[in-house]
Design a protein that fits this description.
Layout (H helix, E strand, L loop, with lengths): L11 E2 L5 E5 L19 E5 L5 E11 L2 E7 L10 E6 L3 E8 L5 E7 L5 E8 L5 E6 L2 E2 L4 E7 L6 E4 L2 E2 L2 E6 L2 E5 L7 E7 L2 E10 L7 E3 L2 E5 L4 E6 L2 E9 L12 E9 L4 E9 L5 E7 L10 E4 H5 L8 E8 L2 H8 L4 E6 L7 E4 L1 E4 L2 E5 L11 E4 L5 E8 L5 E11 L5 E4 L12 E4 L7 E7 L19 E7 L8 E5 L3 H9 L1
Parallel strand pairs: 1-3, 11-18, 20-34
Antiparallel strand pairs: 2-9, 3-8, 4-7, 4-9, 5-6, 5-8, 10-12, 12-16, 13-14, 13-17, 15-16, 17-18, 19-21, 21-32, 22-23, 22-30, 23-24, 24-27, 25-26, 25-28, 28-29, 31-33, 33-34, 35-36, 37-38, 38-39
């Protein structure tokens, strides 16, 4: 009789499938890596995992102690190189690995006795991610979506409508927080793990937020003054009504529908929803055409079936998706030269058509509202009582928002005083003008004529047509009302002579 050889028969096992183990008599190896002597007959199994990661070895029933081991099959059917899983007597589950997908491994049971020993065991498969829900169900670029489910540990990717998330964090085995990218799309959310991908339909991508600028980005005003501030963005609302009467030539189709979209003119992104119903035959194609005015036809510039998944082979349908326009197509959109055309088997040239119209669509909200003439307008006058940073939130038709700020600094001004040593002087005489102002301010004098100027009279410092002509000297400091100081006055000649005689 040939001696016992555990390498002669090595059955293959698969994850998730129960297997039977039995052994009687003495073996040829004594593997002690689990800390115990193993004189019984060794039994080997071959296992090739389909996923990377840590696996669990589960014994469901058993008699007597069995030490279980694993090692790569490339190490050969030899008594060396084994790693202990555990010594097991009855039902229990032990983690082992990590194992590499596609690599063959040996799994060995070696009894601690030579008497009859049996166990039922299996290697549990790694779970695929499963999504049970997510919130919110509609979101803009940059928004966070919380995904609930199971099997998320070790997740390697998250997608929105097939587009990779901008980033994601595995909060736990049952929750992931993912950020929608700027190129996201509507459809199913997917989570890819170590052993497959789980998906759940129902996500709507609302598009990207507008690119917002504020003019000026900063400004300085005096207390009590105001300054105009303006928010600028390139967000537009796009609409169109589908009908057979818009076809060229018109037809009698009773089909109807509508087109709604938000357009981001900075990123050339058209977030489009097309809905149609009541067509006379199955849809064979759907496109955006242009450039053409209403009543004229033009070629295809975007295929809506391939780009946003518009359905075919049905008489009614809807689809939402993101389309990027070229610079010339954007100008055609603004000019009303693009149209959506739904083709059917009954009307190969188009059964219903909608000419697209683009209008500015954003709403504006300025905060704080204090000191603003209209906090919900694109243009507003700002007159704050103190230096203030104003933030405008601009929201487009898809509900996506962006913000921008402007800093308005307020100069509270300086209190000044002015005086003269003599407010009535004759020609050739002088008076000293005095003014005081803040230490950090600069002061200058401005001369203002009040009345008309004529040929100099005999005894007037400044000459005028009227006896009460006079001239002001005014000290000027930024952000302060001007103080007027009378320093010259028309004096009759006889009075001037009397003054000079003294």
């Amino acid at each position: 009789m040939l001696p016992y050889d555990p390498c002669l028969v090595i059955p293959t096992i698969n994850c998730g499938v129960s297997n039977s183990y039995s052994s009687t008599g003495s073996g040829i190896w004594n593997i002690t890596n689990c800390g115990f002597s193993t004189p019984g007959q060794e039994k080997l199994f071959s296992f090739t995992p389909t996923c990377n990661g840590m696996y669990t070895f589960q014994v469901t029933t058993g008699t007597n102690w069995v030490d279980w081991f694993w090692k790569p099959a490339s190490g050969g059917c030899l008594p060396t190189g084994w790693t202990c899983i555990d010594d097991i007597f009855s039902a229990g589950t032990i983690s082992f690995g990590p194992l590499t997908a596609g690599t063959a491994y040996y799994i060995m049971g070696d009894p601690e006795q030579i008497t009859a020993t049996t166990q039922s065991f299996q290697i549990n498969c790694l779970p695929s991610p499963a999504i049970s829900g997510f919130a919110p169900t509609a979101a803009c670029s940059g928004a966070s979506v919380v995904i609930a489910g199971s099997g998320f540990t070790g997740a390697t990717g998250v997608t929105f409508g097939g587009t990779a998330a901008a980033s994601f964090v595995v909060n736990s085995d049952i929750q992931i927080t993912a950020v929608v990218s700027s190129s996201g799309s509507s459809g199913s959310i997917g989570v890819t793990g170590l052993c497959g991908t789980g998906t759940l339909a129902g996500f709507t991508f609302n598009g990207v937020g507008p690119v917002v600028t504020v003019s000026p980005t900063s400004g300085v005003i005096c207390l009590g003054d105001s300054i105009a501030v303006t928010a600028t963005d390139n967000a537009y609302s796009v609409t169109g009504t589908l009908g057979g009467t818009q076809e060229v030539p018109p037809n009698g189709s009773s089909g109807s529908g509508n087109v709604t979209a938000s357009y981001d003119g900075v990123n050339n992104a058209l977030m489009l929803t097309v809905t149609v119903t009541g067509l006379s035959a199955n849809i064979s194609g759907a496109h955006i055409h242009g450039p053409a005015t209403a009543g004229a036809n033009a070629g295809v510039i975007h295929d809506l079936v391939s780009s946003i998944g518009f359905p075919t082979g049905v008489t009614a349908g809807t689809a939402t998706g993101l389309i990027t326009l070229s610079a010339s197509q954007e100008l055609d959109l603004y000019a009303g030269l693009l149209y959506v055309n739904i083709h059917t088997s009954a009307f190969s040239g188009g059964e219903v058509r909608a000419q697209l119209s683009a209008t500015a669509s954003s709403t504006y909200a300025w905060l704080p509202a204090t000191g603003l003439s209209n906090p919900s307008s694109q243009n507003t006058m700002a007159s704050p009582a103190s230096t203030t940073t104003y933030t405008v939130t601009v929201t487009n038709l898809g509900g996506c928002s962006s913000t921008a700020t402007t800093l308005i600094s307020v100069d509270a001004g300086i209190v000044i005083t002015a005086s003269a040593t003599d407010s009535t002087i004759c020609a050739g005489s002088s008076a000293i003008l005095n003014a005081t102002q803040g230490a950090t301010s600069t002061l200058s004098w401005v001369e203002t004529l009040v009345g008309g100027v004529t040929t100099p009279a005999q005894c007037a410092t400044w000459d005028a047509l009227e006896p009460h002509w006079f001239r002001h000297h005014t000290p000027v400091v930024q952000c302060q009302e001007l103080l007027m100081l009378l320093v010259g006055q028309r004096i009759p000649p006889q009075q001037c002579s009397q003054l000079q005689a003294h």
